[in-house]
User: Fold this.
Amino acid sequence: MSPRAEKPFVSINCGAFTETLLESELFGYIKGSFTGANTNRKGLFEAANRGTIFLDEIGEMSPAMQVKLLRVLQERKVRPVGAHEELPVDARVIAATNRDLKQMSQDGSFREDLFYRVSVIPINLPPLRERSEDIPDLVEHFINKFCEQTGRSLGIAPKAMQLLENYMWGGNVRELEHTIERAVALERTDEIQPERLPEHITNYNPERIKAEFDLPDEGLNLTSHLENLERTYVIEALKKTSGNQTRAAELLQMQVRSLRHLLDKHNIRSLSAQMRSGD
Assistant:
């Protein structure tokens, strides 16, 4: 609905680039500024001029890049890598993260001034498990998406939809998308059947899981309890994969860099190395 609606929309995953590459992607560079810079290249801020730039996973940005981004947001100017002149930019900035930036700003891993700069209009998107009413629409969307790619036409069996609505979706919408992509690829009838869903979804029983948790009468420290539970699952995943972090991340349905963050958080990165070496 904004005047920028018809203008450029560009996006970047800040966690997918090293600090140096992220700087050149965002701000551009001039010819000869580094090895391989054979021509001038426009950065994404400049490409999004008068439009919108979406900074995904902003919480993964290094402290040095946070300083540079803050300056761009304050001055509304960018300096391409290797350049002496600054270029004015006029772009709406949307940032997203699955991390607690406020807590990160308090513990010093995310600049407090940048936090307040990017959280002018915060939008909290609840996890998928807290908005199960969205699941049918999302399932229909993803079925149509993957059927269009494969030239097929599929529906979904009511029992399969019920299983999807009951599942907890720790990986949120991305996990649901991958689940539907898999089901479309495997299904040979005109409807996605329950057996085309992963076993951890078809076997999921919220009542059984609920029964495994008994809140003591005296209560408990939930933060400490969840951290211990998180640490336990990370260690178990490493045990099952003999310390292979990539495979452990797959078991926990997260990205490798997120797993490494947990290893550092719980001070168990050395445990992964020990398991790999067989010690």
User: Anything to note?
Assistant: The mean pLDDT is 89. Residues 128-207 form a domain with the Helicase, Ruva Protein; domain 3 fold (CATH 1.10.8.60). The longest helix spans residues 222-240. The radius of gyration is 23 Å.
